[in-house]
Amino acid sequence: MTYLAAAYSIVWLLMLGYTVFLHRHQDKLEKRLAVLEETKIEK
User: Fold this and answer.
1) Is the pLDDT at 43 greater than 70, yes or no?
2) For residues 19 and 14, what is the distance between their CA atoms, to the nearest angstrom?
3) How far apart, in whole angstroms, are the C-alpha atoms of residue 40 and residue 29?
4) How far is CA 14 from CA 1, 7, 23, 26, 28, in A?
5) pLDDT score at 38
6) What string of DSSP letters covers 13-36?
7) CA atoms within 13 A on the CB side of 30
8) Whole-angstrom distance, CA of residue 7 vs CA of residue 24
9) Per-residue pLDDT tens for 4-40?
10) pLDDT of 42 over the 80 cut
């Protein structure tokens, strides 16, 4: 039972870490997209 609880906790921590990673990566992509849109408007 202890192993099951440990595995369950590890899976949730991995999912949480992956979600945070994706959120940060998406923020970077949105900033790049904003810059590209600005340069497109200027041309």
Assistant:
1) no
2) 9
3) 16
4) 20, 11, 14, 18, 21
5) 86
6) HHHHHHHHHHHHHHHHHHHHHHHH
7) 6
8) 26
9) 999 999 999 999 999 999 999 999 999 999 998 888 8
10) no
